[in-house]
Write a structure and sequence with these properties.
The protein has a single domain, classed as HUPs (Rossmann fold), CATH 3.40.50. Helix content is about 35%, strand content about 20%. The chain has helices at about 15-35, 60-80, 95-105, 130-135, 155-160, 185-190, and strands spanning about 10, 35-40, 85-90, 110-115, 120-125, 125, 140, 150, 170-175, 180. Strand 7 (about 140) and strand 8 (about 150) form a beta hairpin.
């Protein structure tokens, strides 16, 4: 059996409790593997179809919007990174599917972590479960009920142990095709380096 080498972890920013949980999981994984954590933020929020569309802005408005988003992203996550220095920030201007596939091809991540803020939420214009199932690399959804609740697409389920999600907790395949895992709180938060 071949294993995917994890040289970088990708995380899509989401300003919510579930987004914070997903960030903590991504940071913990990057810390454990001693790899780059790349934090992505989109000009058009992939979770919110009603968000501002930068394509409808003037060049000046778009430039200001881009700067504001970058500052917001760095301000929010710099403090949460603590002493972890292997982090990169990227504000993505294209749609989420195109940008994330491009970042994957550029090896900016081998596993992607997304917040799962609520049942029935959409990401990139489709149910987040469908997005996760269609994504070609390991993808972990964190939430919505607790920081110890994960949903894994098939590639991630195959790497559950490598991702630190194994041996303790209930694994259950959902009708969506994702594997739901609820970990024991003590084990899920275990991070000897921090």
């Amino acid at each position: 059996m071949t294993t995917t080498a994890i040289n970088a972890v990708g995380f899509c920013a989401h300003y919510s409790p579930q987004g914070d949980w997903a960030f903590e999981f991504a940071l913990r994984l990057a810390w454990k593997k001693d790899v780059q954590l790349n934090i992505f933020h989109f000009l058009k929020d992939p979770y919110d179809p009603e968000s501002a569309d930068p394509d409808e802005m003037s060049r000046e408005e778009r430039a200001r919007f881009l700067i504001e988003r970058e500052k917001e992203l760095r301000f929010y996550y710099d403090e949460r990174l603590g002493d972890y220095l292997k982090a990169g920030f990227r504000v993505c201007e294209e749609n989420e599917r195109k940008e994330l596939h491009q970042c994957l091809c550029n090896r900016e991540f081998q596993v992607l972590v997304l917040a799962y803020p609520d049942l029935g939420v959409r990401f990139g214009g489709k149910p987040i479960e469908a997005f996760a199932n269609a994504f070609v690399c390991p993808l972990v959804l964190v939430g919505p009920g607790s920081p110890d609740e994960y949903r894994l697409n098939r590639p991630a389920a195959l790497l559950a142990e490598t991702l630190g999600i194994s041996g303790v907790g209930a694994f259950e395949e959902e009708p969506s095709g994702l594997t739901q895992v609820t970990m024991s709180g003590d084990v899920a938060r275990l991070n000897p380096e921090r």
